[in-house]
Specification:
The protein contains no helices and six strands. It is mainly β. The strands form two sheets. A four-stranded antiparallel sheet has the order 3-2-5-6, with no helix packed on it. A two-stranded antiparallel sheet has the order 1-4. It is elongated. The relative contact order is 0.30.
Length: 89
């Protein structure tokens, strides 16, 4: 489950992604959004459930981010990266 705070309304449809990667190999992914961006208002909190298959025996990294649905262009973080790597427990 991820949650996202809307800072301002957007004009383009957006999607969230969760990717499981091992090195450069994409192992599993979930791309989706259950709340259409056309209805977002500043201050809204969006919750998104991401379902991935169980993966064993991999040194995977989980990466989350946002992309423009129509073009596939990823939104960048303040440091210029196109995803956030989740800390491993």
């Amino acid at each position: 489950m991820t949650y996202w705070r809307v800072l301002a309304p957007v004009e383009e449809p957006r999607r969230f992604f969760l990717h499981a990667v091992d090195g450069d190999a994409l192992i599993a992914q979930h791309d989706g959004l259950d709340a259409p961006a056309q209805w977002w208002q500043a201050g809204d909190l969006l919750l998104q459930e991401h379902l991935l298959p169980s993966i064993e025996g991999s040194d995977m990294e989980l990466r989350i981010g946002v992309f423009v649905a129509e073009t596939g262009r990823r939104l960048l973080l303040p440091d210029g990266s196109s995803y956030y790597a989740l800390p491993q427990p």
